[in-house]
Design brief:
Helices cover about 75% and strands about 0% of the residues. By secondary structure, it is mostly helical. Helix 3 packs antiparallel against helix 4 and helix 11 packs antiparallel against helix 12. The protein is elongated and about 140 Å long.
């Protein structure tokens, strides 16, 4: 518009009173206004260059620390810019940030790891990506509330769905893929703890065979996911994924039922505390999915109940023999009271051994074990008190009084080995 040739043409048009002059002047004014607006927009948008560069290079776990500064600059544009502060433009800008966050998260996630590689790494990447997106929504909401708290008419009342619809869909996709990874760890045993524990007893080989059958069934369900377009798995706009995943999830439900049945089958043969603890340790080692972990936790109640029964059995034996003057069997070489003390001590050792088994259940919630352990402590204290009470010790001393007059030392003071001297 400032070129000499153009100005010369405009002068000619003015002199000839051309009808094109007004249209040209309107267009020139529009161009000048647009240029001024573009310069102003560029001045403010340049403030986003540094945080956006960081966002472009960041991993999902690093992104949340970048977002507050980025949103502060967006807020500055909203409040200070003359032209870029419209709801449509700011909403579009926030949507672009959402899309970039999703892009960074997708670059971090490896579908090959999920299907055939390092499943645990994929799970960590998925979890980091999911948390990153959730933090983005929280940081946005916090900023929106701060603007509202400040007062005034210019609030961030943008269409939430237009900004975060894709983000919410991506979070759900991460949850779907985490479910697949869970299945890999649980049914295919793809994690670092991939070896089967030893299952004892006559049912041991059968349990192992069923677990292997479950593994093969899971692979068949996973092959349907593996056979789909893997480039589309992380594409939240892909509608085919929902059909593929729905079929896979139904198969997972069936495998869950099979796994719970094998746990029941294994525990059907458990009769002792030691057997129960060993079986519980084995399935706790294998349990990866929340549903399986919860079911194994319920079996802990069964094992604790076996421990309770052993405590009740020892208590009943004590009550029947001591409190009700029942028959106590001990070696004839022991005196009455020393024999009873040794017998009670055997009860203490017996339940102590059961308690040692229960102590191995470090993965079981203390609240489940606490009542039984308190019962154990009370019973041990009762047994110990019986042996050590003064009345009992007095009876014990009376019993051995007859031996005090015997010269025990003289009877024991005999040489066991004699050295013979032979003179030649």
């Amino acid at each position: 518009l400032e070129r000499p040739k153009l100005k010369k043409i405009l002068n000619i048009l003015k002199l000839s009173d051309s009808s094109y002059l007004k249209a040209f002047d309107d267009l020139a004014s529009s161009i000048n206004a647009g240029s001024i607006e573009a310069d102003d927009n560029l001045k403010f948008l340049k403030s986003l260059q540094e945080p956006c560069k960081k966002l472009e290079e960041a991993e999902p776990k690093e992104i949340p620390s970048i977002l507050p500064g980025l949103l502060f600059r967006v807020r500055m544009i909203w409040e200070r810019s003359k032209y870029y502060n419209t709801p449509e433009r700011i909403s579009s800008l926030l949507r672009k940030i959402s899309n970039e966050i999703i892009k960074r998260c997708k670059n971090q996630i490896s579908i090959k790891d999920m299907l055939d590689g390092d499943v645990e790494k994929c799970m960590k990447d998925l979890q980091d990506s999911k948390e990153c997106c959730e933090e983005w929504e929280k940081i946005y909401e916090k900023t929106r509330l701060l603007i509202a708290k400040k007062g005034g008419k210019r609030r961030w009342d943008f269409n939430y769905g237009s900004i975060f619809a894709q983000v919410d869909a991506f979070i759900q996709r991460c949850n779907d893929l985490l479910e697949i990874c869970d299945g890999q760890l649980q049914f295919a045993r793809k994690g670092s703890d991939s070896q089967l524990p030893q299952f004892g007893g006559s049912k041991g080989p059968e349990i192992v065979n069923i677990l292997e059958e479950i593994k093969l069934s899971f692979r068949k369900h996973l092959d349907k996911i593996r056979g789909s377009d893997q480039d589309k798995i992380l594409d939240v706009k892909s509608t085919k994924w929902h059909d593929d995943y729905s079929a896979f999830k139904n198969g997972m439900k069936d495998l869950d039922v099979m796994y719970l049945n094998i746990i029941n089958f294994a525990f059907d043969s458990v009769e002792t505390v030691q057997q129960g603890v060993e079986m519980l340790e084995a399935f706790d080692f294998l349990a990866k999915r929340a549903s399986i972990k919860n079911y194994v936790s319920k079996k802990a109640h069964f094992v604790i109940e076996l421990f309770n029964k052993e405590l009740d059995k020892a208590k009943n034996e004590y009550d029947q023999s001591i409190m009700k003057k029942g028959v106590i069997i001990f070696p004839i070489t022991h005196g009455k009271y020393s024999g009873i003390a040794i017998w009670i001590r055997s009860l203490m050792i017996r339940i102590e051994n059961f308690k040692k088994n229960i102590d191995l259940l470090t993965f079981v919630d203390d609240g489940i074990k606490r009542p039984a352990l308190e019962k154990y402590d009370s019973l041990q204290q009762r047994f110990r008190h019986h042996i050590m009470e003064e009345k009992y010790k007095s009876s014990w001393r009376t019993e051995v009084k007859e031996y005090e007059d015997i010269e025990v030392r003289s009877k024991l003071d005999r040489a066991i080995l004699c050295l013979s001297l032979i003179h030649i």
